[in-house]
Specification:
By secondary structure, the chain is mainly alpha-helical. The chain has 17 helices and no strands. α10 (224-239) runs antiparallel to α16 and α13 runs antiparallel to α14 (315-343). The termini are close together.
């Protein structure tokens, strides 16, 4: 079925660099500002929950797992609706706005259950915006530059994620353990991101599908290769429990490095700097050599670094672990999003991204809850070893279900069926 592409499909590239279009740049800065806001909170949230609110590590696991996985149900709906009605930007505006309010309100949270509700609201906002945002990026570039576009976007996104912990570090040095102040200040860059989104992102109405199918029919129409990709991504997500546990391990004097809250923020800054620096070049590399070798390397690297920390989590190993985690994230994030656009038709992109985020988010509920329970009842080493083993299982599945030699044959190059 043919479909009229959005008028933003072939915009003028920024400064003549193919794939780096106006929308890609603007959405990159929206994500940068949003991540400054979000990543001010993430490195201090585990300490806020377990010290200020006196909650258990299991409670932290419930917060992270429930917030991510239940909000994931909205991701499939927002992606499918953006395909059905031919609009992307309204989902972005509402999603980013909801997250802004939730993060600022965390400054007055008095219990871990209140933090759970606010983290859930923040993730609902993310669930509403991410599939239409990724579909809009894919709509805005030629298929051969998808890796470059997603890598560039991820680099700006992660640069914001590096600035956020740096701001948190400076604030904790000036105001030790005043976590609520950080939550309040985080609203400033979040509001600025909404301004950039409203003014600079151009997302004209798409021509919706003439006879849009029901969600389950649209999912089946994406084909078996996309289904196999979802299976492997879901299994890997069972291993990929919240980074909050690694941050907690970095601060743990008994099992980990025993870093102060300010130093935990610096270690998280290091992770995000590595992630930001490598995202763009690795995205371009995936355009040249294919997505699958890079994704397999990401799975294996994750297993190796979690296995290393299960063996020893002293200061030097902890720092090395966060550096390797940055490399892993740069390998996997933009590459998976580029691969989705390779495998589905252009007029089903929103639905495809929604399905992907839903599968990954749903797997995070058992991943984080089990990780928290293992930490409390057995110890962090058992948690880390379990995640490493699951990542190896995912790598094996990837080898069997998505062999690299079939990658170019399986691509649809983003064209409508």
């Amino acid at each position: 079925m043919s479909v009229t592409p959005p008028s933003s499909a072939s915009p003028t590239p920024a400064r003549g660099l193919p794939g780096i279009t106006r929308n890609v740049v603007a959405l990159g800065f929206v994500s940068l500002l949003t991540d400054v806001s979000s990543e001010m909170i993430i490195p201090v949230l585990p300490l806020f929950v377990t010290t200020t609110l006196k909650a258990s590590v299991s409670s932290l696991g419930i917060i992270e797992g429930v917030a991510e996985s239940t909000a994931a149900l909205l991701r499939i709906g927002s992606g499918w609706l953006s395909d059905r009605i031919g609009r992307r930007k309204p989902f972005l505006l509402f999603g980013y706005g909801l997250s802004t309010v939730a993060k600022a309100t965390m400054a007055v949270a008095a219990s871990w259950s209140a933090v759970l509700g606010l983290r859930f609201s923040d993730r609902v906002g993310k669930g509403l915006r991410n599939p239409p945002r990724d579909a809009l990026i894919a709509d805005s570039v030629e298929p051969r530059y998808l890796g470059r576009a997603f890598g560039f976007h991820r680099a700006l996104d992660t640069l914001g994620a590096a600035v956020g912990p740096l701001v948190a570090f400076a604030m904790l040095r000036a105001f030790p353990r005043e976590f609520r102040r950080i939550f309040l200040i985080s609203a400033i860059p979040a509001v600025l991101s909404l301004v950039v989104l409203g003014i600079f992102v151009r997302a004209p109405r798409h021509e919706p599908r003439v006879k849009p199918g029901a969600l389950h029919r649209e999912a089946r129409a994406m084909g078996p290769v996309f289904a196999r990709f979802l299976v492997t991504a879901g299994v890997f997500s069972l291993a990929n429990s919240s980074t909050a546990f690694l941050l907690l391990l970095a601060a743990d004097p008994k099992h980990g490095a025993g870093f102060s809250g300010a130093r935990v923020a610096l270690v998280y800054l290091l992770y995000n700097l590595v992630y930001a620096l490598l995202s763009w070049p690795l995205g371009e590399l995936s355009d040249r050599i294919g997505r699958r070798p890079i994704l397999l390397a990401a799975y294996l690297l994750f297993a190796a670094l979690y296995g290393m920390l299960a063996w020893h989590a002293g200061a030097a190993f902890m720092i090395a672990g966060f550096v390797l985690l940055g490399v892993h994230s740069a390998l996997i994030e933009g590459t998976q999003r580029s691969m989705i656009s390779d495998l589905v038709d252009a007029d089903r992109r929103g639905t495809a991204y929604g399905l992907y985020y839903t599968v990954v988010g749903a797997a995070l509920l058992p991943a984080s809850i089990i990780a928290g329970a293992l930490w409390d009842r057995v110890g962090p080493r058992a948690m880390l070893a379990t995640d490493a083993a699951l990542a190896l299982v995912a790598a094996l599945l990837f080898l069997l279900l998505l062999p690299s030699r079939h990658e170019w044959r399986d691509r649809r190059h983003g064209q409508p069926a």
